[in-house]
From TrEMBL:
Region described as Phosphopantothenate--cysteine ligase: 11-221
Annotated family: In the C-terminal section; belongs to the PPC synthetase family.
Domain DNA/pantothenate metabolism flavoprotein C-terminal stretches: 8-214
UniProt KW Coiled coil keyword: no
Listed EC numbers: 4.1.1.36, 6.3.2.5
Residue span relative to the full protein: 180 to 400 of 400
Binding annotation for CTP: 99, 109, 125-128, 143, 157, 161
Cofactor note: Binds 1 FMN per subunit.
Pathway the protein contributes to: Cofactor biosynthesis; coenzyme A biosynthesis; CoA from (R)-pantothenate: step 3/5; Cofactor biosynthesis; coenzyme A biosynthesis; CoA from (R)-pantothenate: step 2/5
Keyword terms, alphabetized: Decarboxylase, Flavoprotein, FMN, Ligase, Lyase, Magnesium, Metal-binding, Multifunctional enzyme
Cofactor(s) essential for the protein: FMN; Mg(2+)
Originating gene: coaBC_3
Catalytic activity: (R)-4'-phosphopantothenate + L-cysteine + CTP = N-[(R)-4-phosphopantothenoyl]-L-cysteine + CMP + diphosphate + H(+); N-[(R)-4-phosphopantothenoyl]-L-cysteine + H(+) = (R)-4'-phosphopantetheine + CO2
Protein name: Coenzyme A biosynthesis bifunctional protein CoaBC
């Protein structure tokens, strides 16, 4: 890569969806493939950063030069992210973390008995919100996957989670969101400015996000 503008920076990136077990063979999950997060990890490493990729289950190859920590549940992602937080300069949270998990995990495969089955869900920790409360010098970049009122919801997450920047994607648009090679995003900064990007490959979006991060890192020195 021509630019080594992230040399000596430690960047933690989360990718893919979490899986919340119901019983030994079933889970609650989502459609995240890891493509967005892995593109960020690969690009950041090429630009010289030391990258820690905390990933939920994904079939993608591990990008070269990246330290991988594989997790399954939101609780495991929470532990992995918190254990690295003090050592990093930047966190980018592209993972789709389950907001809720089954309250009880059945020890044996649940049998097909009744006509309906109720699974009680309890709230997971909001990893990014906790980072926002703890952050000292770190830059925090979140993603917002929305199906309506994109800007309003993304802005609300930026504020509530104390982020420096949020990348908002309307996951209902063809060419955007889960499990495809392109995305359509709006980048919202802490100061309120919004940049709208056209449909681009996730690698190109990763480059642009990292350009913004470089500028913020230079300003905060
Ligand atoms: O993996 P792909 O198939 O390429 O798809 C990419 C993507 C659509 C998953 C990605 O672009 C994206 O939008 N990721 C964030 C999805 C999401 O969970 O958004 P959210 O609006 O629910 O969460 C907002 C932010 O808080 C996210 O940065 C999320 O990582 C974080 N979060 C959410 C819940 C929670 N319990 N802990 C968190 O840290």
């Amino acid at each position: 890569h021509k630019r080594q503008d992230l040399l000596n920076k430690r960047i933690l990136i989360t990718a893919a969806g979490t899986r919340e077990p119901i019983d030994p063979v079933r889970y609650v999950g989502n459609r995240s493939s890891g493509k967005m997060g892995y593109a960020l990890a690969e690009t950041a490493a090429k630009r010289g950063a030391e990258v820690i990729l905390v990933s939920g289950p994904s079939n993608l190859p591990i990008p070269q030069g990246v330290t991988i920590k594989k997790v399954e549940t939101a609780a495991q992602m929470h532990a992995a992210v918190l254990s690295e937080f003090d050592t990093v300069d930047v966190v980018i949270k592209a993972a789709a973390v389950a907001d809720y998990r089954p309250e009880l995990i059945a020890e044996q495969k649940i049998k097909k008995t009744g006509d309906t089955l109720t699974i009680n869900l309890v709230k997971n920790p909001d990893i990014l919100r906790e980072l926002g409360q703890q952050k000292k010098r770190q830059l925090l970049v979140g993603f917002a996957a929305e199906t309506e009122d994109l800007i309003t919801h993304a802005r609300e997450k930026l504020t509530r989670k104390n982020l420096d920047m949020i990348v908002a994607n309307d996951v209902t648009l063809p060419g955007a969101g889960f499990n495809i090679d392109t995305n359509i995003v709006k980048i919202i900064h802490k100061n309120g400015t919004i940049e709208e990007l056209p449909q681009l490959r996730k690698q190109q979006i990763a480059e642009i996000i990292l350009d913004k991060i470089c500028i913020m890192l230079t300003k905060s020195i």
